[in-house]
Amino acid sequence: MQNIFLFISTLLAYFVKSITGFGNTLVMGSLFSFVVSNRLTTPVDLIFSIPTNMYIAWRERKNISLKVVIPLSLMLLVGIIPGTFFLRVGNDRILKSILGIVVVGMALEMLTRKPTENETKKNSPIFLIIIGIISGVLAGLYGIGALLVAYISRTTNNKSEFRANICCVFLVDNVFRFFLYLFTGILNKEIFMLTLILSPAVILGMIIGVKVDSKMKEETVEKSVIALLVISGTVLLIKSLLYN
């Protein structure tokens, strides 16, 4: 039953990824955390993220802006190292509690976000540094670039630009963390075996997502994702606080 739950969760996560360009780690992290440790979830999602981010970045390559990608990638890498350290030594109950807060906060940010079509909002270098480093810490812990999603959504003009830049930044993060996780011993035989088992779910989720994306309204998909994140994050937080 646990493997079936993980398979369905993975399929759902990469269905969302295929449509929006992000969200796989938020969905996968939330659902996986009900049955397995974050030390297992994060590296498994990392391995899946590399080829999927590569695919989406290549598909949207004409919309990539190096002015967005390069500075964010550099700041992200700075924060990944301490985040990875906390992943190794942190208490799993505390990690899940923090993840619940992050997931709910991200969902609420998406819910209250105002459309920025045809308008590019510029932020100060200090704000960019803070966003990048905190996102790096979250990426090291969970692979989540929650703040990056909010930032890039405000510095791009359309869905294609958003997908291109967010997946390109995530890809830089993925490659760096892959070697860092290998060096620190986070990636092991158990991780690779679970990855192999769940691979068909990723492929199926991406295929379904591509087909649905061309027929389903983006607003409908976004509202569904927000609802799922709020419910998952809230339940996860309550569970972590009330139970050992």
Automatic annotation (TrEMBL):
<keyword id="KW-0472">Membrane</keyword>
<dbReference type="InterPro" id="IPR002781">
    <property type="entry name" value="TM_pro_TauE-like"/>
</dbReference>
<keyword id="KW-0812">Transmembrane</keyword>
<keyword id="KW-1133">Transmembrane helix</keyword>
<dbReference type="Pfam" id="PF01925">
    <property type="entry name" value="TauE"/>
</dbReference>
<dbReference type="InterPro" id="IPR052017">
    <property type="entry name" value="TSUP"/>
</dbReference>
<feature type="transmembrane region" description="Helical">
    <location>
        <begin position="191"/>
        <end position="212"/>
    </location>
</feature>
<feature type="transmembrane region" description="Helical">
    <location>
        <begin position="164"/>
        <end position="185"/>
    </location>
</feature>
<keyword id="KW-1003">Cell membrane</keyword>
<feature type="transmembrane region" description="Helical">
    <location>
        <begin position="126"/>
        <end position="152"/>
    </location>
</feature>
<keyword id="KW-0813">Transport</keyword>
<feature type="transmembrane region" description="Helical">
    <location>
        <begin position="94"/>
        <end position="111"/>
    </location>
</feature>
<feature type="transmembrane region" description="Helical">
    <location>
        <begin position="224"/>
        <end position="243"/>
    </location>
</feature>
<protein>
    <recommendedName>
        <fullName>Probable membrane transporter protein</fullName>
    </recommendedName>
</protein>
<comment type="similarity">
    <text>Belongs to the 4-toluene sulfonate uptake permease (TSUP) (TC 2.A.102) family.</text>
</comment>
<feature type="transmembrane region" description="Helical">
    <location>
        <begin position="68"/>
        <end position="87"/>
    </location>
</feature>
